[in-house]
Amino acid sequence: DLQICQHRAPTCCTKKMEESYQAAVRRERTQSIQALNFELKYMIVGHITAFQEAFESLLRFAENRTSSLFETAYRPMAKEAAEPVKELFTDISLYILGAETTVESAVLRFFDSLFPLVYSRLINPGITDLSEDYTECLRLTRQDINPFGRYSKNMVTELSKSLWASRMLSQALSLGIEVINTTEHAALTKECSKALVKMQYCPHCQGLTLIRPCVGYCLNVMRGCLASVSELDAQWREYISTLEYLTNEMAASHDLEIALTGIRNSINEAILHAQLNGPQLSATVDKVCGQPKQQEGNLSSDNIVPVKEATETQTFVMAHASLNNKRREFINYMKRSRTFYASIAERLCDGDLVMRDSSTCWNGEDVV
After folding, report:
1. Which terms in the GO cellular component ontology are assigned (predicted)?
2. How many CB atoms sit inside 10 A of residue 218's CB?
3. Which are the contacts of 173, defined by CB distance < 8 A and separation ≥ 6?
4. Is residue 84 one of the residues assigned to a domain?
5. Residue 354 included in any domain
6. Residue 119, CB-side half-sphere exposure with 13 Å CA sphere
7. What domain count does the chain have?
8. Is residue 58 part of a domain?
9. Domain span at 97
10. Is residue 71 part of a domain?
11. 172-227: pLDDT as tens digits
12. Tell me: the pLDDT tens digits for 64-113?
């Protein structure tokens, strides 16, 4: 009653043993593919972690620099500006990690929150009544009167270019893990299970436990079993090329680090622009939102203190170098894995599975 290991000679196998062999080959094949995938997956997961750590470090650095701008140059509004600054960098972080948001909405939301503060603390520092209605009116007016000139739009353009590559790379790395996980659990067909049993275990039914499959025979069986997995070859090569393109984009004109550290200067230029155009802005705001209550005497807001950033800059340079090195190492490794899915049968037929150095091997029917 044997279905797979039928042979003219007497046999020590039963149908139940054949079923056990089928379960064994399925388990072994999953384990051997997992072992092959492990190094590749480990490299991608490691890079995702390293990328996120370096990115968070750069983000914190850029956020601290931006906060220090308000604490030193725009002290009257520093405390109230802390929350909008924090929100801006949180939105940027979420965008890179793939959240359904845009750089433009994050930046414009920040400037909407910033305008009431700039208007009431710097342009008209005598305002005492900043009610919710008046604040909301200022937020909405910001979109129409454009107090920050071209600087708010420039910031959107600069950040969008550099953050896009980072966002795409982050998503691409996660996709790579998904692809690898899917191939690990690719179901073996019944025909494949039978072919593997015939190749690995049918010799045992003849008492030939030390005889292993011939190399060519093993390759034929494995290629048949893994046809669906090896079909990924063209897409995997394209995927590696995309990773290469994205890492080059990040390191070139769309440099993430330069864009993040440039946020401080963009905000500073925007605030200075608003201050220079203070009288015109006040006239427009008075027409739209009405005149708020004023306090007697003007509060000085011109004392700008130079910022000391030597140690922070050193931290930034180290994070920048670390990210660049990680990119290079990663892409070089991934380029070497370009043929991963094309050569998977060869790699599974390597090592102890087949008979390499002997003239005697199993061809599926007999010892040859």
Report:
1. cell surface; extracellular region; plasma membrane; side of membrane
2. 25
3. 44, 47, 48, 51, 243
4. yes
5. no
6. 30
7. 1
8. yes
9. 28-291+315-349
10. yes
11. 888 888 888 888 777 788 999 999 999 999 999 888 888 889 999 999 999 999 88
12. 999 999 999 999 899 999 999 999 999 999 998 888 999 999 999 999 99
